[in-house]
Each structure stands twice: as structure tokens, then as C-alpha cells.
């Protein structure tokens, strides 16, 4: 059976990690083996040599895509939560996967909503200049135009978004039983 990659993209604090974890939990409870690659966890391990310049962000995204592709090639399900701010880089990521093996979910929330959710204070640090190259403020986020799914977390709960994503995965993998 062909594997599948679900790639969550969006601004910091939009809800990518939260939804990705819920999707992973749902699929796991349904008996699926799922790998979660969350940027907050994997970046320090896979990309400790990289900063946050445009080129370093590209390298980071491509390294994560490589790992995700290996999982998919072996029939696995992988859920990726990473900002991946540049459209050209996301297109490169998509090109790593066979047709039908990749779902991009744009986790969309207005900047103000993301800032209000920021428990780590990253946006405040970026606004004060303490953090440079911060996506959405001092570094751009290019909204995707080709996402299979859009999760508007300013209108829908994380649970509702996760349910939508799981249904989309099940549509691509008919043998999947979802709970």
C-alpha cells in the first residue's frame, strides 16, 4: 500500500502542532502506525546547523521532506507540522511525493489570533527585535495557493480541523478505518 504524507503549514501559533497531534492520535487509535514530525521537536535534531535565513529554512524543509518521503516510500503515514513559509519550497516538497501520496493542509489563522495564542512570547520578542527572521513579522509567510485542505483555526476548533484532515486521509486510503 502506498504511504501518505500530510504536511501542515502556517504561521507560528496557527495550530499546526495541535492539529497534527490530534490527527496522529486519531489514526493511531484506529490501528495505524503514524510518524509525527513536528518542527519544534525535529529541527534541533535534524537541523542544528541551520539558522533562519531563507536558504537555511529551505534546507530545513527539504531535510524534513526527505525523511517524510522515506516513510511514505515504505508504506507509512507521516504527519509533518512545520511553518515552511515559502511557496517555492513547498512546491519542491510536493515534488518529492508520488501523486496521491501528499496532502497539504494550510492552517490559516490571522496574525492577531496567532499572537494571542503565543504562550512562549515569541511574537513579543520578535517585535522587540530580540528574535530576527520571525515568520509573519520580519520574515514573510507566503500563503499557499495549492493546499488540498484549509484549516481555519480562527473559526473551527482544532478537533474539527483534525476530523476534516482524517476524513481526507481516509478518502485517499480507502482501507483506513477511522474512529
Descriptive overview:
The chain is of the alpha/beta class. The protein has one domain: P-loop containing nucleotide triphosphate hydrolases (Rossmann fold), CATH 3.40.50. The chain has helices spanning 16-29, 39-46, 54-73, 87-95, 111-116, 122-127, 158-172, and strands spanning 4-9, 34-38, 77-81, 102-108, 149-152. Strands 2-3-1-4-5 form a five-stranded parallel sheet, with helices on both faces. α1 packs across α7 (158-172). The longest helix is centred in the middle third of the chain and has 20 residues, at 54-73. The model has no long low-confidence stretch (mean pLDDT 93).
**What can be said about the biggest beta sheet?**
5 strands, parallel
Please give the alpha-carbon distance between the first and last residues.
20 Å
CATH homologous superfamily designation:
P-loop containing nucleotide triphosphate hydrolases
Quickly count the domains. Answer: 1
Count of β-strands? 5
Shape, per Cα inertia axes: globular
* Overall mean confidence score, pLDDT: 93
State the CATH class. Answer: Alpha Beta
Strand order of the largest sheet: 2-3-1-4-5
Q: Architecture in CATH?
A: 3-Layer(aba) Sandwich
> Beta-strand level of the residues, as a percent range?
15-25%
* CATH overall fold name: Rossmann fold
Give me the number of helical elements. 7
> Can you write the helix and strand succession as a string?
EHEHHEHEHHEH
Estimated radius of gyration: 16 Å
